[in-house]
Specification:
The complex is a heterodimer of chains A (84) and B (375). Helix content of chain A is 27%, strand content 30%. With 84 residues, chain A is α+β, with helices and mostly antiparallel strands. Chain A has a single domain (3-82), classed as Hypothetical protein rpa1041 (Alpha-Beta Plaits, 2-Layer Sandwich), CATH 3.30.70.1530. Chain A is globular, with a radius of gyration of 11 Å. Chain B has 375 residues and is an alpha/beta fold. Chain B folds into 2 domains: 2-10 and 265-373, Aspartate Aminotransferase, domain 1 (Alpha-Beta Complex), CATH 3.90.1150.10; 16-263, 3-Layer(aba) Sandwich (Aspartate Aminotransferase, domain 2). Helices cover 40% and strands 15% of the residues of chain B. Chain B contains 12 helices and 13 strands. Chain B has a 7-stranded mixed beta sheet with strand order 2-8-7-6-5-3-4, sandwiched between helices. In chain B, strands 9-10-13-12 form a 4-stranded antiparallel beta sheet, covered by helices on one side. Chain B has a two-stranded parallel ribbon with strand order 1-11. The radius of gyration of chain B is 21 Å and the shape is globular. The chains are: A alpha+beta (84), B alpha/beta (375). The A-B interface holds A 9-13, 15-16, 19, 30-32, 39-44 and B 31-32, 34-35, 40, 43-44, 46-47, 50-51, 61-63, 224-229, 233, 235, 237-238.
Chain lengths: 84, 375
């Protein structure tokens, strides 16, 4: 399954991100960023389904929450950065 | 035991507070330290606590709510963000050592804006006169921890905004019983303990930071974020929260915040003020007792000081304690306040209440004092 990882600068930022998405009815899940994407070491990301990314980005923009980076993955361990 | 020392720490807590703290001890670990359920559960609790505090205290973003060990820790962070050696800082004449000692340690030029007790207009005028262009910060307690005097902090914050001076509010005695809003005040920082009027466990405190404020950390260490870098993160709250969080305390504090929210700060304040007025009336009737009470009830929160002619206040406090009433005597870590009120030599005995005290407890404490003072 294809999904996106929104990399956040901190756990609290990830929680704010997930809370904003939840308020907009977009399901998401916070988890620790895979080592392959957490460039500066330990980080957290918010996982959203492929179909929700565009709306999620709109919601986050309105909430003033800018994602640090976004990665696309198919759950195979490969992560491809998506240019915003 | 009649507990009347809530200005130090509230002892009676809502039952959900110790329950949550005990549950956290055996179910939650630390936010950001692992992706397993105990760590993520701790993260959820911490976030809910930040959000609850942000909602109650007018903070736009929960990232601006920093967990500290107490209000002193929070004040140290705020002060170090704004003040350096030789800087001019204006404070009220009612400040706690949690404000004055960090300023002294930094070598700041401290200007106390002194005014008579319970005179809000004079207090404001004193600040107005003391504020100069070169003033680096104004730091003011919302409520005197010795006398319960409610300072005109909304007006003072307005004055600071007009003069472009950063304002730091010490809400140690007001958080939980008076309206406090970081945003409405336009304050740079608001510091508060979790273990007083927010009914959380000891070892908890909050620093509310205005947008853009990024104090230097007092502690450096692990934050569970950006671990490959040796510099502390340049964002809140991680920058100021090195090391393992006090999650049992935070879980308890969350329940305390929920209690305050559900009961309402206005209702808590009315209750506490009624108790203090009752205490003032009972104690004033005792021969030789001098009570520091305001004529205007709105100017005094749930704290009342008194002293008895010819009696050492520490001995009185001790005697009351032996008879089952817990009151604090002495200088209450606030020599500035006693200097302002003219009680520095004697100190006072302080009675301070919480939402859980009753009129009967006040009457009983007054009876005990009457018994002690009987010749």
């Amino acid at each position: 399954m294809v999904y996106y990882l929104i990399l956040c600068r901190s756990l609290t930022y990830a929680q704010r991100t997930a809370a904003a998405l939840e308020r907009a009815g977009i399901g998401s899940h916070i988890f620790r960023a895979p080592r392959a994407v957490a460039g500066e070491g330990c980080g957290h990301c918010v996982k959203v389904a492929e179909r929700n990314l565009a709306r999620a980005l709109q919601v986050l923009k309105r909430a003033g929450l800018s994602p640090k980076r976004i990665f696309l993955t198919e759950g195979t361990g490969d992560y491809r950065e998506v240019q915003l | 035991m009649i507990y009347l020392d809530s200005a130090a720490t509230t002892l009676q807590k809502p039952p959900a507070v110790p329950r949550a703290a005990a549950w956290a001890m055996s179910h939650l670990t630390t936010p950001g330290r692992g992706g397993h359920p105990p760590a993520m559960g701790a993260a959820e609790t911490a976030f809910r606590c930040r959000q609850a505090a942000a909602d109650l205290f007018g903070v736009p973003d929960p990232e601006q709510v920093v967990f500290t060990f107490n209000a002193t820790h929070a004040l140290n962070l705020a002060i170090r963000a704004l003040v350096g050696a030789g800087d001019r800082v204006v404070i009220s004449g009612w400040e706690h050592n949690a404000v004055t000692r960090p300023l002294h340690a930094l070598g700041a030029e401290v200007i106390p804006a002194r005014a008579p007790l319970f005179d809000r207009q004079a207090q404001l005028d004193a600040f107005d006169q003391a504020l100069k262009a070169e003033t680096k910060a104004v730091i003011c307690t919302h409520v005197s921890n010795v006398f319960g005097f409610v300072l005109p902090v909304e007006e003072l914050a307005g004055l600071c905004r007009r003069k472009g001076v950063p304002f730091v509010l010490d809400a140690s005695q007001s958080a939980g019983c008076l309206p406090v809003s970081l945003e409405e005040l336009g304050a740079a920082f608001v510091a508060m303990p979790g273990h007083k009027g927010l009914y959380g466990p000891q070892g908890t405190g909050l620093l509310l930071c205005a947008a853009g404020m990024l104090p230097p950390p007092l502690l450096a260490g692990g934050t569970g974020s950006m671990s490959a870098l040796q510099a502390m993160p340049d964002f809140l709250p991680d920058r100021l929260e090195a090391g393992t969080h006090n999650i049992p305390g935070i879980a308890g504090l969350l329940e305390g915040l929920r209690y305050v929210r559900a009961r309402g700060t206005e209702r808590i304040l009315r209750h506490e003020q009624a108790l203090v007025r009752r205490a003032a009336a009972r104690l004033s009737a005792l021969p030789g007792v001098e009570v520091f009470a305001s004529d205007a009830p709105a100017e005094q929160a749930g704290v009342l000081s008194f002293r008895a002619a010819g009696r050492d206040c520490e001995e009185l406090g001790e005697a009351l304690g032996r008879r089952g009433a817990a009151l604090r005597a002495g200088l209450h870590c606030a020599p500035e306040a006693h200097r302002s009120a003219g009680t520095l030599e004697t100190g006072t005995v302080r009675l301070s209440v919480s939402a859980f005290n009753t009129p009967a407890e006040i009457d009983r404490a007054a009876q005990l004092l009457a018994h002690i003072l009987r010749p």
